[in-house]
UniProtKB/TrEMBL annotation:
GO terms for cellular component: cytosol. It holds the Pfam family HTH_3. PANTHER family: HTH-TYPE TRANSCRIPTIONAL REGULATOR (PTHR46797), METHYLPHOSPHONATE SYNTHASE (PTHR46797:SF1). GO terms for molecular function: DNA binding; DNA-binding transcription factor activity. Residues 15-69 form the HTH cro/C1-type domain. It comes from the Bacteria. It comes from Nocardioides marinisabuli. InterPro entries: Cro/C1-type_HTH, Lambda_DNA-bd_dom_sf, RmlC-like_jellyroll, RmlC_Cupin_sf, TransReg_Diox_bact_type. Keywords: DNA-binding. Signal peptide: none annotated. CDD domains: cupin_XRE_C, HTH_XRE. This is Transcriptional regulator with XRE-family HTH domain. Gene3D superfamilies: Jelly Rolls (2.60.120.10), lambda repressor-like DNA-binding domains (1.10.260.40).
């Protein structure tokens, strides 16, 4: 799987804008996201393409959905060695944002997701393959047609079965 984001410079600009709006220093956001200050600086300057892992790490402390950092159109995507995600739909309504993604996790690979913004909820419907979902230490095994919903403001992880898995992931974030 490709290990890049398809519009790194615009993601960096979005991160910088959101960080500034929230009155966070570069050091404070880097510490909260558990990434290096130099890495964050390079992302914001457009000199580095963020991985999906970095985007998730930054989105949580900024209190925004992943969609706030991606290109603002259906079809926008990001990937790392374990997971690729392509935005299918986005709904912004008063009080919350709902993101719908097609996700694929490689066989035997694990994608760890830090806690999303406070009050976020997520649900996954497996389309093909098998998924092992770990939400705060509670493990759920899912196969085709099965789904699970959880409070996504805790760390969680997706692991692909022997053939990996594809699914539809819906994330609802307040704000």
């Amino acid at each position: 799987m490709e290990r890049s984001y398809d519009a790194g410079a615009s993601a960096g600009a979005r991160i910088r804008m959101l960080r500034t709006e929230r009155g966070l220093s570069l050091s404070a956001l880097a510490a909260a996201a558990e990434i290096g200050k130099g890495t964050l600086s390079e992302l914001e300057a457009g000199r580095r393409n963020p991985t999906l892992e970095t985007l998730y790490a930054v989105a949580g402390p900024l209190g925004v959905p992943l969609a706030a950092l991606l290109e603002d159109h259906d079809g926008a995507g990001a990937a790392d060695e374990a997971l690729s995600a392509r935005r299918l739909h986005l709904v912004r309504e008063a009080g919350h944002t709902t993101e719908v993604y097609l996700v694929q996790v490689a066989p035997g690979r694990t994608r760890r997701s830090p806690a999303h913004a406070t009050g976020a909820h997520e649900q996954l419907v497996v389309l093909t393959g098998r998924c092992r979902l770990d939400v705060g230490g509670t493990v759920v095994e899912l196969g085709p047609g099965e789904h699970h919903a959880w409070a996504a403001d805790v760390a969680h992880a997706y692991t692909g079965g022997p053939e990996g898995f594809s699914g539809v992931d819906v994330i609802r974030t307040p704000g």
